[in-house]
Amino acid sequence: MITQRPTQSDVETHVTWYISGYTQIPPDQIRPIWVLRDPPLSFDDSQLAYLALSLRGYVQHYNPNETVLATDTRKNGQSVKTLTALIYQKVK
Amino acid sequence: MMQALGRAACIWSGVWLIGAAAAAQTADPAKPPKDPIGSWADGIGLSVRKAFDGTKAEKSPATFLWVRDFAGADKEYSLIDLAMKIGERDLVPKSPSMLLVYPVGEYHRQTQESKRVNTAALGLKAEFRPIAPGIQPPGGSPPFPGAGTGPLVVPLFIGEAKIGRDFEAGKTNQLYSVFVMPFSTRPYWPGSDFRDRAHVFRGRYYPYAGVEYYRADVGTSSQRVEFGVARLYAEWWPVSSLERQVVQLTGEGTYRRHLSGHLFDGNASEISFGANVYVDGHGHLGFGIDYVRGEDPNQAFAFRERTTAGIKILL
Fold this sequence. Notes:
The structure holds two protein chains of two kinds.
Chain A: H1 8-23, H2 45-62, H3 70-74, H4 80-91
Chain B: H1 2-25, H2 36-43, E1 46-49, E2 62-68, E3 76-86, E4 89-90, E5 98-110, E6 117-129, E7 154-166, E8 171-183, E9 194-195, E10 201-218, E11 221-240, E12 245-261, E13 268-278, E14 285-296, E15 302-313
Antiparallel strand pairs in B: 1-3, 2-3, 2-15, 3-5, 4-5, 5-6, 6-7, 7-8, 8-10, 9-10, 10-11, 11-12, 12-13, 13-14, 14-15
C-alpha cells in the first residue's frame, strides 16, 4: 500500500506518540534530547526491542522495503531526536 | 599480595568513579548527556552484564568485587561475574515478528579458599517476539488508523543453549532452556513502567515460566536433570529524579520444580536482592551490594548464601 509519506515534523510527532505509548509520559512533555535508555524514559532492552517492532509497523506502512531493527533502538545514546531522524530517513 | 591488590583496586576505582561523577555533573543541560562508555560499547556491538542466564543477573551490571569477610575463615577474597554478548542478528528483519539471535560468553571467578569458583561458558541465545503489543498513549492521535493496535499482553520467548567448563573441578556442563514472559505497555502490567505523578520512572517487574535441562559430569559418568521453572524479577528506583537515576533496588525469586533426572534430586530455589548506587546517573557505572541464597545452577545446585559488595558496570 502506497501512502503519502509523512513530513519530518509528522515523523517527530508520530515517533513521540509511540514513545509515549510505552512510557505513559504525555507526548507534549517528551523532549527531543531525552535518551531512550536514560531517565526519564528509562527503556530497558525488552522494551526497546518491542519499540523497534512497533516502529517497524509504522515504517513499513509508508515504505514496505524498509525496516527497524532492535539495534536501532538499543543503540547507546539514541535519543528521541536521533531516532526521529533515523525513522524519517526510512520513510521518506 | 591479595590484600594489596584489592586495596589498590578499590583506591583506583574510587578515583575513577569520582571522576566520572564529576564529568556527569558538569554536562551542559541543554544537550543530551554524553555517554562515552556506552558509545564505545555500541561501536563494537558489545553488551556487558553479570550473566546472560535469563535471571536478574541479566539486568544487573558485571561485577568486580573485593570482599572483606569479617566472620569468615578467608578475611579477603575477590569475585568476578562477567558476561558479554556481541553481534546480535535479527533473522526475520522485515516481518511483523522479531527473532534475535546472539552468542554470549561468561566468566565467573571466586578466590575464597573454601568456595573456589572458576567457570567459563559459551552459548547461543534467541529471543522471539511474535507481535508488537498494543499501545495507548495518554494523549495525541495515532499516525494512521490502526496504528498501535495489538494485544493487551504479548509473549516473549527466550531460548538458550550453553556449554560450560568448571576449571576447578575439571568438568563440563550443558544447559538448554526455554522461557516465556508476558509483556505489556499498560501501567502495572508485566514489563510496563511504574511512574509517579511527576512521571519519574520508579520500577517494573517481569514474571517468567519455562523449562530447563542440565547435563553435567558427575564422577566418571554424566547426569542430567530437568526442571519446570517459575521466576519473578522486580526493580525499584527509590532515589531518582526526572533526569537522573541513582539508587536501584532489585529482587528476584526462582523456583525450580524437579521433573526428572538425578543430577540434582528435589526442587531447587533461589532468592536474591541487590542495591546499586550509580554515580553517572545513567545506570552504567556505580557500586552496590548483593545478597543471594539458594541452590546455584552454575555449581551443580550446591547451596550457597553470600553477600558481596563492589563495582558495577552495565553497558
